[in-house]
Amino acid sequence: MICSKSFRRFIMISKHIKGAKSAVPATASMHLERCFSSARFADDDVLFDRIGGAGIITLNRPGALNALNLNMIKKIFPKIKEWEEDPTTTMIIMKGAGGKAFCAGGDIRTITDEGSKGNFEAGQEFFRSEYQLNYRIATCLVPYIAFIDGITMGGGVGLSVHGENRVCTERTLFAMPETAIGLFPDVGGSYFLPRLSKHLGMYLALTGYRLKGRDVYKAGVATRMVHSSVLPELERDLVAMSNPSTQDITNLLRKYHEECKTGRERDYLILRDKEEAIKRLFCAGSVEEIFQNLKEDGSEWALEQLHVMKKMSPTSLKITHKQLSLGESMDLSECLEMEYRMASQCLRHPDFYEGVRAVLIDKDKSPKWNPATIPEVTNDLIDSHFVLPSDGQELEL
Prior knowledge:
Elements: H1 32-35, E1 46-51, E2 54-59, H2 70-85, E3 91-96, E4 101-103, H3 108-115, H4 121-138, E5 144-148, E6 151-153, H5 155-158, E7 165-168, E8 173-175, H6 189-192, H7 200-207, E9 211-212, H8 214-218, E10 224-225, H9 231-240, H10 246-260, H11 275-281, H12 287-297, H13 300-309, H14 314-327, H15 332-346, H16 350-361, H17 379-384
């Protein structure tokens, strides 16, 4: 449920999808090590500027691909609140430093370091604060503009996809790869992924497939696309506007978007030729049925998807399927509340720690999941992830 004081705006992502691509790349695990990086707190890990009526937030950990840590979240939330409550604020711009990433994910390593010692509160505080920030962005009354230039995964998706304006570039790389580390696509993934067309969201969630460049726009994840070279100019034009209306901002973003169309670039989703296959194969009511669909299809592409999914945590796959199925009929606040219960339970499940070990610590990319196979994941285990731990508290938004 959405509290009446926060009932300000729902962000519905319903852009149409036009297509489909071949298999998930063999390098699908690329960037994971740095996506879920360990935090080093610093005074300048996030920068705040005010130019006229524009508030500008810069994620400033380029060496860690601007990975999001609790320290950054604790700074960003009150600043957005402060600017939103200031009647002179005309817009908020969120961007990443360094040119390689907007934000490649969250501070997972620190969470598992503490959780392995039995300190689950550190992880719960991170997820609680992160989801509250996601909701603040989604309900922000001031026009919010995210420049999702470069790698945008996990926590970076939460900082952008719930905003009113999401500007991608040819360098944008979008993915939700959490099932590879024993987690699930959180930060509101249960809300925005089911609202992508033709079961694309389920496909992205279960396989971790990466959308690049124009595909991020064509899939409906971004609302506009510009070339990375014009981002500084776009920012200058935005902040130079005198008391702009929401429509003025929309018109300027549209202008830059239209200028990005050269006539030489394709105007369809790279996955176009697999669109119907994704819809047919990933619409099933269970992960087991999806596996069976892929086997029976027998095409090279289908078998490649099956191969990729078999590398993921079986528990993560099954809770993710249920998560997205439930999220389809929930509002954002309900989704985030559900995800907080799920995250709290994942902190108490071995796969999260094993996934982080395999990706971040030993880096052998050979996790030993427990349970090891899809049939071994019982309904009771799945259902337990959707109930708050006995020592936990519900998420307050």
